[in-house]
Specification:
The structure holds 2 protein chains of 2 kinds. Chain A is mostly helical. Helix content of chain A is 77%, strand content 2%. Chain A contains 13 helices and 2 strands, in the order H-H-H-H-H-H-H-E-E-H-H-H-H-H-H. In chain A, strands 1-2 form a two-stranded antiparallel sheet. In chain A, helix 7 crosses helix 10 and helix 11 packs antiparallel against helix 12. Chain A is globular. By secondary structure, chain B is mainly α. Chain B has one domain: MetI-like (MetI-like fold, Orthogonal Bundle), CATH 1.10.3720.10. Chain B is 71% helix and 1% strand. In chain B, strands 1-2 form a two-stranded antiparallel sheet. Classes of the chains: A mainly alpha, B mainly alpha.
Chain lengths: 325, 305
Amino acid sequence: MTVFIIRRLMQSAVVLVVMSALVFVGVFAIGNPVDILISPQADQAEIARATAALGLDKPLWEQYFVFVINALHGNLGVSFVFNEPALRLIAERLPATLELAFSAIVLSVVLGLPLGLYVGLKPETALSRTIAAGSILGFSLPTFWVGIMLIMIFAVELGWLPSTGRGATVNVLGVDLSILTWDGLRHILLPAVNLALSRIALVIRLAASGTREVVHMDYIKFARAKGLSQSRVVGVHVLKNILIPIVTVLGLETGAVIAFSVVTETIFAWPGIGRLIISSITVLDRPVIVAYLMMTVFLVILINLAVDILYSLLDPRVRYGEASA
Amino acid sequence: MTAAADDEIAPAKESPETPLRRFVADFLASRLATAGLVLLLAVIFVALFAPLISPQNPYDLASLDLLDGRLPPGSQSAEGMTYWLGTDDQGRDMLSAIFYGLRTSLAVGALSAVFALAVGTALGLVAAYMGGRVESLIMRIVDLQLSFPAILVALILLALLGQGVGKIILALVVVQWAYFARTVRGSALVERRKEYVEAARCLALGDTRIMLHHLLPNCLPPLIVVMTVQVAHAIALEATLSFLGIGLPITEPSLGLLIANGFEYMMSGKYWISFFPGVALLIAIVAINLVGDRLRDVLNPRLQT
């Protein structure tokens, strides 16, 4: 187990180094920032001085080295647009994004799991067919289109829910949260549903197919033969056995949820990191782009690592496979 | 090769059950899939013949009238033309804009999927056939890439490359090739151990020939399924990126851009500028997915009883 974790840790470190090099070379080595930062009238000496001040006269590997050292000190450059450290800009907006992502994941479990169980237990009813068809649609619909429709129906036509911003927030341990106020809850509902929709569909599918396999197992038959109530059979014996793939897939989806919040945040004007990156890409604010990409890549790698370890803890069969390999 | 041979032999046996006919009959057995296929054919028809069937050329500025801007569906222009789906802020007929947008969206989606298919299939075949170091290197890259969300990979690439039709196609290819590589390798690994490959080796045929003429045709069914799914995926991703303003440039308006263009008028109740392009996008994606779903069922021998 320890060997497995160490090996996965090293793999993750390698991936992080490769991605940072890619992002660095891609964003910094293409084009010359001096052209943008200095006036066109500047003479050769001035250009040389600016180049030296930015460290651009050094060979590429040395520039990358300086970039990594700075990054490890939490310095990913200063935003051209906001004139603030890029990392602070990201850190300020990260709680909003994480809150949205968390709400979406919770929604997808709370809605997806019961629906999926129902479809798996009673696959032939009309309601099950409707849910299953709906889950296919949930996969097909592009997130941004669903978001627009949600705004059109619930914000514009019916006027029930607000469509922009976070609403009132409560400061908990230095972090502003929306989900703790009524106004904030009203604001987060539409974006969270929007972000959750394809995840709900995913959980429904996983839960339904898992249930359909599990109910024919001997231990379920035995549990029924023992005379256990339906709720205990489903709630304990079935649920425990379908949960592993759902936990893993949802864990891996967390990274995708954070990445896809780019779309939801843009539509609902949610002040998270997704909106920041889109505006930074349009105005070519390089330090913020790099900071966002590094941050998200780091988060995704961390999540994948955590899920892998969790998976091997939940399912001993995986551990055996690793040990013999 | 084998499929073609079977087709020729089967009629001689006086049986109408050729593999192709059975495949078509199986496919059409599902009413939903048939509806999907009809829709898909309609969408392709519209995309191909957009310039011929559009009531107006939406990008010929001379035919636009700013006074016709933001008219609701069913309004009449000064010359008596009816805007069935309304007009956008430039006075453009939405129906024509959607036809042209569908053309762009479908072309970008299909092109990127075809390129990704070529790259992914080649690498997947090489990985399965060569084995060893080459295989583990290729598959390591595939795993690495699939562990990142598609939109994140696309964002990284577009942040590095900038905008443009070629660049978005490149980004979509990079996002998609890994799925093809994984699929091809999976089925090629199984096929590689079969006797016909050994026979081909005994005939001292070249590696390329064995891979392309013997392995590849037998890996096609799963590839076709992945292809349909990926075309839909590419169209949706391109629309998303264009909606965010980092996809196709404004000179090549795809459906995503049309939707983004109408989004700001949504709040004032002028729903049609965003709504109808969205419906068109939806029809295209759902139709492709319905066909893909059915193909998976029909082509998968494990599901056939």
